[in-house]
């Protein structure tokens, strides 16, 4: 193949089509557990209330709900993935090997938010939430009556433990001592716990033949990226506009190229470049909307 602007344009069209098809075919999970927040600056500062507000009887002047009770800042970071196509491979029509690479680049770009969310999810025992303590901790001082926990150790996934964690989340109280109304309905597990989780929430009867009272209490989300923590599971309330995690989107993944014969990468290295770049960050929403449990 003789390299001309027309052949490069045709190759660009082919790669773009492969990229789009692979992007559309890729299933992400982040949108189920995280609120996507558009960002137009280097960082976003979030002002969280200590509790989600409810209507009160109107006596006297309005009571202003202040969003600045807690400040939480997320700074956007740049990310990239670049593929080089050798000039000789184009001239020799040896491009078949690059098609799946471009497709996998699209998959990685689509899964980029998942990658960020997985990191903060598994780092939640040390990463700080809006109240200044670890997102998963036993020292959340929201209830005036004492600390509340969303981190349960020695708690393998079972019907009893599932019910116990779910009841604990439903009992969370705000700074006024009133229940926060948390209703967890998403059970998040690694692949190793998939069968256990599905039996737990779908089986009509338990192992002892008794009616399974946990049936229908949650849906199951299996996340392959969590396989490195085989006994850790999570329970979340994702029914609200605010979800337990945050994905901050400054710049969505965009496919770009450097394919002009005069580009340094072509002239000096015989490499035509296609790549993806993006900017964003992931962080924590209200801690009381998600709990972590580990055997």
Walkthrough of the structure:
- Helices cover about 25% and strands about 30% of the residues.
- The protein has about 300 residues and is α/β, with parallel strands linked by helices.
- The protein has a domain at about 30-40 and about 70-80 and about 130-250 and about 280-295.
- The strands form four sheets. It has a five-stranded mixed sheet with strand order 7-13-10-8-9, with helices on one face. It has a four-stranded mixed sheet with strand order 1-11-12-4. A two-stranded antiparallel ribbon has the order 2-3.
- A hairpin with a 2-residue loop joins strand 5 and strand 6 (about 145-150).
- Helix 1 (about 5-25) packs across helix 4 (about 100-110).
Largest beta-sheet characterization:
5 strands, mixed
Give me the strand/helix succession.
Answer: HHEEEEHHHEEEHEHEEEHEE
Mean pLDDT: 90
Count of β-strands: 13
Distance separating the two termini: 59 Å
Taken from the alpha-carbon principal axes, the silhouette is: elongated
Spans of at least 5 consecutive residues whose pLDDT stays below 50 are none
Given the helix and strand composition, which structural class is it? alpha/beta
């Amino acid at each position: 193949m003789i390299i001309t602007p027309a052949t490069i344009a045709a190759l660009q069209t082919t790669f773009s089509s492969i990229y789009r098809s692979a992007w559309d075919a890729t299933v992400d999970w982040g949108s189920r557990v995280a609120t996507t927040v558009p960002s137009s600056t280097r960082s976003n500062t979030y002002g969280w209330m200590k509790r989600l507000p409810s209507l009160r009887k109107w006596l006297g002047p309005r009571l202003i709900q202040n969003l600045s009770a807690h400040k939480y800042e997320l700074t956007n970071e740049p990310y990239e993935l670049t593929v080089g196509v050798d000039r000789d491979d184009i001239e020799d029509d040896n491009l078949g090997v690059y098609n799946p690479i471009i497709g996998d680049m699209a998959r990685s770009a689509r899964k980029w938010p998942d990658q960020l969310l997985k990191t903060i999810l598994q780092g939640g025992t040390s990463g700080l939430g809006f109240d200044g303590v670890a997102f998963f901790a036993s020292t959340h001082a929201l209830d005036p009556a004492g600390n509340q926990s969303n981190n349960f150790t020695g708690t393998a996934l079972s019907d009893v433990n599932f019910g116990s964690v779910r009841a604990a989340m439903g009992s969370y109280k705000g700074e006024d001592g009133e229940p926060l109304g948390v209703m967890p309905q998403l059970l998040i597990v690694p692949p190793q716990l998939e069968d256990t989780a599905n039996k737990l929430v779908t089986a009509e009867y338990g192992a002892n033949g008794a009616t399974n009272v946990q049936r229908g209490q949650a849906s199951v989300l299996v996340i392959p990226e969590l396989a490195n923590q085989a006994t850790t599971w999570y329970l979340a309330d994702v029914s609200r506009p605010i979800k337990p995690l945050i994905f901050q989107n400054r710049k969505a993944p965009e496919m770009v190229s450097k394919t002009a014969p005069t580009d340094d990468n072509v002239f000096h290295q015989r490499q035509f470049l296609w790549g993806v770049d993006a900017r964003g960050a992931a962080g924590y929403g209200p801690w009381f909307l998600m709990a972590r449990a580990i055997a």
